[in-house]
Write a structure and sequence with these properties.
407 residues, 17 helices, flat
Length: 407
């Protein structure tokens, strides 16, 4: 039910008139008072209060649990389902998550407990929550624990946010505490690490597809710290899975693996991080050493070799890219004059730019169609020389900081 009255039918409780001031006209302001009466069914009073304040609702539920009114607490908690949505993440939401987690454990009802915990972000978790997390996992089982952890991740997020970066720094300690807690903390730690790794792997795969070297390298380096923290938080099985996946990636993955090893070397793996982390880092270091050794022992490009890798896969069926790839892979062709219409020139431009190739493209505006002029630049040689110097520097650092174990 709703009733309204227009302003013109109301009597203002205050008016203020200001006359003409020279730069603007006269004004008249009026103030009115309005009121609303809100009614709801008595049986929904708890949900209505909860929608106005989550903290009060959780305190009320905890109060019923403390006085032994378990069924009432369950009934009231179930009534929150339609309104118990996003509750936030990070340090600001940690006290609310603490209260929700304590209630979830006390309800002894798996579905309702999962509903109460689902709206929080994974960055909310901290070592203060370990006892209740381990108890909840022991009470509700590993399938429930995996589902609860999955709900805290939501869509795959980037690792550039301050909350996520700070939380990742605490991840090794959090997982170590979970694995040694009473209850079944490992049921939370395992899917926690797997979820973080899944997000990191998707980002890593995405950066590997970027052809522009400077952009790709910057993105890969940013993933180095998260990757190091993930490995430091791993159990043996997950560590082996992650290392196997990383070793199967192309050489450009070293742009992420080396920063991860530098991060681990800066903060050496401790006893708390565990043997799996130490073994994982050493295995990755050996892998990187083998890749870098192969890179620095390749023959230096001949002075007359202008060949480049193809521009990647073209899914448009344009019919142009085979000719482009033939020009790119040629050892002797440096310049290509290519009469093309505007849209076809634009397509070739984008293929070259997306692949980050050392090829300039200009249009000679004579005749019809205009001629696209492709020219391989001296960066064909200088980029390879820079890559070799970088590989030699990285290899020297790697052999100093991560020497192969004897025996």
């Amino acid at each position: 039910m709703c009733a309204t009255t227009e302003n013109k039918d109301l009597t203002p409780y205050q008016s203020e008139y200001e006359g003409y001031m020279g730069n603007y006209g006269n004004t008249l302001d009026r103030w009115y008072r309005r009121a609303a009466v809100v009614l709801w069914p008595r049986q929904r009073s708890f949900a209505a209060r909860a929608e106005a304040g989550s903290e009060g609702a959780l305190r009320e539920l905890q109060g019923h649990l403390d006085t032994g009114e378990l069924e009432l607490a369950r009934t009231l908690a179930r009534s929150l389902a339609p309104i118990w949505k996003h509750r936030g993440s990070g340090e600001a939401a940690a006290p609310l998550f603490t209260a929700a987690l304590h209630v979830a454990v006390g309800l002894e009802e798996a579905d309702t407990a999962a509903m109460l915990l689902a709206p929080f972000g994974v960055e909310t978790l901290g070592e203060r929550h370990v006892p209740d997390l381990a108890e909840a996992a022991a009470r509700y089982g590993r399938t429930w624990s995996r589902g609860a952890v999955g709900s805290w991740f939501g869509p795959v997020a980037a690792y550039t946010g301050a909350d996520r970066a700070a939380w990742l720094e605490s991840l090794p300690g959090l997982c170590a505490a979970l694995r040694t807690a009473d209850g079944d903390g490992d049921a939370v730690a395992a899917p926690l690490v797997e979820g973080v790794w899944q997000a990191a792997e998707q980002q890593l795969t995405g950066w590997l597809d970027v052809g522009r070297e400077a952009e790709r390298r910057a993105g890969m380096e940013r993933l180095g710290v998260p990757l190091a923290r993930i490995l430091q938080a791993c159990d043996p099985k997950t560590a082996d899975t992650i290392v196997t996946a990383l070793r199967g990636l192309p050489d450009t993955a070293l742009e992420c693996l080396l920063p991860a090893l530098r991060t681990a070397a800066h903060r050496p793996t401790t006893v708390r991080d565990g043997a799996p982390a130490a073994h994982a880092f050493q295995t990755l270091a050996d892998h990187c050493e083998a890749r870098l050794t192969a890179a620095v022992t390749r023959p230096v490009r001949a002075a007359d070799d202008w060949s480049l890798t193809p521009a990647g896969t073209c899914r448009s069926g344009c019919g142009l890219c085979p000719d482009l790839d033939a020009f790119l892979t040629s050892r002797t062709r440096r310049v290509m004059d290519w009469p093309l219409a505007k849209d076809r020139r634009r397509h070739i431009h984008s293929r070259i730019d997306l692949a980050g190739l050392p090829v300039s493209h200009t249009t000679r505006r004579q005749g019809r169609p205009y001629t696209l002029v492709l020219t391989k630049t001296n960066a064909v040689f200088t980029r390879e020389q820079a890559a070799r110097i970088r590989a030699e520097t990285d290899l020297a650092w790697l052999r100093e900081k991560w020497p192969r174990p004897r025996g």
